[in-house]
Every structure is written in structure tokens, then in C-alpha cells.
Amino acid sequence: MSTSTIRRIVAAVAGVALLGSVAACGDNAAIDDPDTVPSSKTEISGNFAGAGASSQQAAVEAWISGFQRVNPQAKISYNPSGSGAGVTTFLTGATAWASSDKPLDHEEVNESKSVCKEGTAFDVPVYATPIAVAFNLNGVSDTGQHLRMDASTIAKIFNGSITQWNDPAIAKQNPDVTLPHLPITIVHRSDKSGTTLNFVEYLKAAAGNDWKYDLSENWPNELGQGAKGTSGVVSTITQANGTIGYADLSQVGELGTVAVKVGDDYVPISAKSASNALVDSKIDESVQGANRVVVAINHNTKAENAYPIVMISYDIACPVYKDENTGRFAQAWLTYITSQPGQIAAQKATGSAPLPSNITDAVEASIEAMN
């Protein structure tokens, strides 16, 4: 499919997004009533399946709805089986794309030669979300108060060095908050998780010697309570006073959240502040493989109002597919979901952080290189 055809498809959705933006105001302007989106015949038709990161599930559902309104003959399904399972399924040739909370590793890139007609699979960022340090503390979280913490304090809580809520390190940063003499209970993921990997990546980058564990998708110590999935972590935190954990902001509900120290300021979590951190991040030029766009998140950013604990999730596709129709779909799909209207649709559905232009410019070039 030509680039001009793809852009016509995206333009149909973009026009609706523009109408929505006129009706809305502020940074969180979103698409108007999705039922008003006109459908139209396009060259995209057939059955297409994706699988992978559960973090993307709500966004993918919004993207499928938007894409199918202008491509009614495209039937799309998505299995939120997890990042690793999604990549494995893609590498068997059973799906058109995979979603993953971490980039492909060297072995996976090489293995993709058997799936793609030419070249090797590539990954592009499609979804970004801030990871909240969420807590349940009577008299604090239930009154809508944030707690303020620097990277060292967060690391010491999660490595077991700080065990009480009124520890001097927490109290010094929160002089206006009455903190109880109460044990801290850590809640972490019990399953292999891209959220864990990204949270640990922040601690390792920003906390220095206060975090000595290696990067891993598995929680690295035996402290506290494990819970499966983001929903399990949030549920466990919610059920007991004195708990703290980490989770995608879109699912933390009424729990308290930590404002993280950046430079001399403490930055509350939000989609906007997470996006600001991505503006201050760069594409990792050391990544091997054609067309790959992997973001090196600057967890040590000093940018104004930049929240540094961010997770980026990727979509994985072939540069050339054995089936031409699948290739046409994959290029149109990636073009839409990384476009401004696609990112607005995801933000409306999940509260995600829209990808800034320093990332989307590279993504657009990568997708246009598909044949």
C-alpha cells in the first residue's frame, strides 16, 4: 500500500479527532463520541490477529474500534497473553503483530528471519504510561495527599532498608504530613512483568548504590507480598493499611501516589509529566537491526515537570510480510496507532502519555520503510 493511501486512511480518523478537539479544551482533549466516526470502504480487509502485552489491552481495544470504523472489512482480534507469549506467538507466524513491554532481544530478532519475507522484525514504541508508586495509608491517601520521595527513599523502601512510614527519610521530605509509626508492607508483581522491568530500571538508574539488583522482569527480592498482574497489585494494596507498590497509573484508582523528586522539585504523576520525560529522552542508536526504534528513557531527567518513572510498550512487525495483505494491514495499523488521533484515542481510554514528536518522527520513518 502506498504511503498516500495510508495517510488517507489516517486522515479520516484525524478529521474526527479534530472535531473532538474543537469541542474539548486543555491538554487532555479527546475524540468526540466515537459513534459519530463515519465508516468508509478502504483497501484494508481480512482477519488479523495480534497478541502480547496486557498493558496495552485497553488502548488496543480503542485502536481496533477507531481503525474498524474507517476499515469496516478488517476484522481484528487481540490476545493480551503477555509480552513474552505475544512475541513467541508472532515468531511462529500465527499473528500479524506482537505487543511487548520490552524491545526484542538479539535472539528474537534473528529468529524473525523465518517469519518475515525479507529482513528481520522491528519494534516501534506505540504506548507510554507513567508507573505510579502507589500506597494505602490511612489519614494520608484517603485524604487525597501525595507523599514526596526521592529515588533513594523509594529504593530503600523496596529493598527493605526503610521499614516504617514515619522513617526520618520520609518525614523530612513530607514535613506537613502526619506519618504513623506503622510498618511498611511492600506489594510487588509475582509474575514476569514489563512493569517490574521498567520500575527496576528507574531504581537502578536513579538511586545509585541504594539499588543493587540487576534488571529483570521478575521481582528481585522476597520482601512483602507478591500479586499477579497489575489488577492483583492494586487490589492487594487497596485491602490493607500501610501498603505500597507500583502499577500503571490508569489502574491505581483512589490510592495515594508518590510525587518523585526531579532536580529540586517533586513532580506528581500525570500523563503530561510522563510525556515531558520522554521529550527529554533519546532513541537508542546502539540497537542492532534495521528500522528498530527503541527509546532510552532518561530516568535522571532534570526537565521541568517531568515524571521519570515511565514504561514504553512496543509493537513488533515485519518489514516485508509473506502475505501481502497482512503487510498492508500492518503498515496501516502502525501508521494509525502512532498518529496523533491514535495516541489521543489511547489517552482517552487509558490516561496514557502521548508519544512526543522526537519519538514519533523516528517511528514514522520506520513504518514508511515497510514494503
UniProtKB/TrEMBL annotation:
Pfam families: PBP_like_2 (PF12849). It comes from the Bacteria. GO terms for molecular function: phosphate ion binding. PROSITE patterns: PROKAR_LIPOPROTEIN. InterPro entries: ABC_phos-bd_PstS, PBP_domain, Phosphate-bind_PstS. Residues 40-340 form the PBP domain. Residues 1-26 form the signal peptide. GO terms for biological process: phosphate ion transmembrane transport. GO terms for cellular component: ATP-binding cassette (ABC) transporter complex. Keywords: Phosphate transport, Signal, Transport. Belongs to the PstS family. This is Phosphate-binding protein. It comes from Bifidobacterium magnum.
